[in-house]
Amino acid sequence: MVLVALSNPTPCRGMHYFFVILTPPTLRLCNATSIVTVNDQFPGPTIRVQEGDRVIVTVRNHVDYNITIHWHGVNQRLSAWNDGPAYITQCPIQPNQSYTYNFTVEGQAGTVWWHAHITWLRATLHGAFIIEPNRHNLYPYQHILKGKIFKDEVVLLGDFWTQNVEEIYTAVVETGTISVANPYIYASAINGQPGPLYPCSEAGTYRLKVKRGKTYLLRIINVSLLDEFLFAIADHTMTVVEVDGAYTKPYSTSVVFISPGQSMNVWVTADQPANRSYTILSASYIPNLLIATHRLNATGVFEYEGSSWTFNPPATSPTTSSDSNTSRHHHKLQPLVTPSSFPAQNDSNFVDMFISQIKGIGADPKGSKSSNRVPLPLEIDRNLFFVLSINALPCPSCTGGNIPGFRNAAAINNISFVLPTSTAILPAYYYSNKQNYADKDLQQHVYTTDFPDFPPLVYNYTGMPKNPLQYADANKGTKVSVLEYGSRVQIVLQGSSTLAGPETHPIHLHGQSFYVVATGLGNFDEASNVQMNLVDPPLRNTVVVPSGGWTVIRFVANNPGVWFLHCHLELHITWGMEMVFIVKDGKGPQQTLPPPPADYPKC
């Protein structure tokens, strides 16, 4: 990665990065595996900019796969062309081609991230994107610590796959299933390292070296394709101060929960005896134990300066199993301290409690600087109800699905989304609305504007129906929902248990953050006078719809363009649990999407 400051440090700087896409061999789990990387780095490089900076990233594709990069959590105000999801806002960067993403980060600060947004390549193409606040918008919690953050550290919770993820993706597309019979088809990892519970992994274990009495800011990001995580540092308390690049009221806890796509800033003080070191533990959260899992926990070391320690016994929690092959026996070294208590892998009560404790720093209808600067709508123009479901499509030759003769699919309001291939939705929309454009019918060949506001059937969404196919049938289509500029939108995101039983769904909205104003279990019932939090709701870009429950979000559609909404579990997005919003232009240049850049990729 090369960084060039294109001007003097001012409130608006130009920061230029070069991303070269390569496939180096990488040694993990006793094997050398070729993986797709940025600049031969796994995880990828961290981008660190300041609010107000212009970010210029030139991506040069030197691999055999098509590539796009999504700037997850960057709102892309008036720059939808740079958002990155393949066939939604752009055609991919083809092999031996390049494209320069060019956008300004404005109106936000905090920890977000970047990743590939095509097939399953984000498994290894990902990294942190840190937006430092400018001097007019300092961290609201700095007065609590009095500027005593000693160091900040990026902590990426993810996976390492031993099988080519493109082959896995192709199999999922063709059959609707994924085989995890091999216990090491993928390993949980912290900053790309599985840790000593996995074979051949002890030497590379992630270690955070700390000094007693110092306070550290951990920028935790869940980059996993499939797994939600419970994360802890043995005998240490973490204080959550930010989620998804938006500040929160401080909340102290010994364990945090984080879902794919989400980011979270916590501070932790090294306040334990310095002659010991302590286990960092990342464990998969699986609310539905009917879904088979073979993952061991990823472990790291919170290593105090001057301590002597050993993996003896291996770093475990009450819910983990040990691996004697990774033990080392040294008489003078202290074993790592492990968590004295830890939630079970299906402890939905803990997860629901943790989510309920995350509160925003305050919100108001105008989005003032005393809040998170994003307006909270108190009145609603568009009221939407989206049912998230696992579905079934006829497939006589498919095996391994929930119903014989059918392949697994996923849908929102029983529409299983299909990506276009001839061009992306954004240019089709943009050019179809230009008076001097020849192909006025381009839009009709790419998408339709009839995505339903409500599900086609009303039923007991979180119950277990006797005839699941009655509700699990899905229609494939490329359907979008059109929003007027300035619309005040509320979406009820309703989970279901039609085929696979209740599951959580981390739902991500591109293009703007939203407020989480309510959440609950069972079926959402507007008539029951649901209490909406319109005082201090958290601002997020990725929200967890609880297992067997629902979540209500609100936002103002004030960013013209084409914006993807989807589940961030890669299996579900591959199956079709996604849809697209088109936000129309408003009035004047500050409410109108500019034309595409000159080097915009073509399909």
From TrEMBL:
Location(s) in or outside the cell: Secreted, Extracellular space, Apoplast
Pfam families: Cu-oxidase, Cu-oxidase_2, Cu-oxidase_3
PROSITE patterns the record matches: MULTICOPPER_OXIDASE1, MULTICOPPER_OXIDASE2
Keywords per UniProt: Apoplast, Copper, Lignin degradation, Metal-binding, Oxidoreductase, Repeat, Secreted
Name of the protein in its database record: Laccase
Keyword Metal-binding annotated: yes
Residue numbers spanned by region Disordered: 313-337
CDD domains: CuRO_1_LCC_plant, CuRO_2_LCC_plant, CuRO_3_LCC_plant
Role description: Lignin degradation and detoxification of lignin-derived products.
Enzyme class: oxidoreductase
Cofactor: Cu cation
Keyword Zinc among record annotations: no
The reaction(s) this protein catalyses: 4 hydroquinone + O2 = 4 benzosemiquinone + 2 H2O
Organism: Sphagnum troendelagicum
